[in-house]
Design a protein that fits this description.
With 285 residues, the protein is α+β, with helices and mostly antiparallel strands. Helices cover 33% and strands 26% of the residues. It is built from 8 helices and 9 strands. The radius of gyration is 23 Å and the shape is flat.
């Protein structure tokens, strides 16, 4: 009898716990799935978050800003992956649960301000009006039935001749939160994909100016053109490839980037990649 009462109590407790969760799961339904096409993920609903603060030492001001379209509702696996990705972009040191965006961003704000005080400001020239800053922003830039793409930008100044600027993104599959990277492309076609990106970078970013393109390259071997180190991102009009500062070219060249239309990128995709974009722009072409 005691065992029966205990079991009933446990079941009641679990029922109450699940009822209090924002995202509910039908375990039996999940276990019966045999195809991603059986999942119809909800749209990702976001809430804008913004944190700004500053510190002053030796007459120098250090300012930090963090802004985000923070995911609040949707497939749990997707929004949890997005939150973890955000944390990793900011340093990956937050030990709490990433569902509390305000608390997580406060942690990274304090880390930046501490770095300003301990490392950056002491090494900066003591000049009137001198300041350092760091701004980080997460933006939900595109969403379809099957994926959502976020863009992350970071810019700042910490002394020296000029500041820095970083631009990268991440696409997440909405059925399970998978982060999309180069494994979505066919392995045997990666060299051909790099050539395709090179042609589009030349045409779209350098305005087909061959001399400007070749003079700006900082590669050890210009005959080998690498794909960007950061993940390709799926946009409304195609897949975007973004090179960071100094990755393939000089500082003055900025961040070379190109968007390859889906009709050109489709032959390079794996079956999982084709499924991903099937409900997107490829279906309209």
């Amino acid at each position: 009898m005691k065992k029966t009462l205990f079991a009933v109590g446990v079941m009641c407790g679990l029922t109450l716990m699940l009822a209090g969760c924002k995202t509910k799961f039908d375990t039996q339904a999940l276990n019966s799935l045999t195809s991603l096409s059986q999942i119809t993920p909800a749209d990702i609903k976001t809430q804008p978050l913004a944190i700004a603060d500053s510190v002053k030492k030796d007459g120098i001001v250090g300012a930090v800003v963090i802004q985000a379209d923070f995911p609040e509702e949707g497939n749990f696996f997707v929004i949890n992956n997005i939150r973890e990705w955000m944390s990793e972009q900011l340093g990956g040191t937050y030990e709490g649960v990433p569902e509390n965006g305000q608390r997580m961003f406060d942690h990274y704000k304090r880390a930046v301000l501490a770095d300003f005080q301990q490392n950056i400001i002491p090494d900066m020239p003591k000049m009137e009006g001198m300041e350092c800053h760091k701004t980080m922003k997460f933006e939900k830039m595109h969403e379809t039935e099957r994926y959502v793409t976020y863009l992350y930008t970071q810019e700042g100044y910490a002394g020296g001749a000029h500041g820095w600027y970083l631009l990268q993104g991440q696409t997440f599959r909405k059925s399970d939160g998978r982060r999309i990277d180069y494994d979505i492309f066919r392995t045997e076609l990666m060299d051909e994909l790099a050539d395709l990106v090179k042609d589009n970078i030349f045409a779209q970013y350098f305005d087909s100016d061959k001399k400007l393109f070749e003079d700006g390259l900082t590669l050890e071997n210009n005959d080998f053109f690498p794909l960007p180190e950061t993940a390709p991102i799926f946009r409304e009009d195609g897949v975007e490839f973004i090179y960071q500062q100094y990755e393939i070219s000089c500082y003055a060249a900025g961040l070379p980037a190109c968007v390859v239309p889906y009709e050109l990128i489709e032959p390079f995709l794996t079956q999982a990649g084709r499924w991903l974009v099937n409900a997107g722009q490829m279906a309209e072409n």
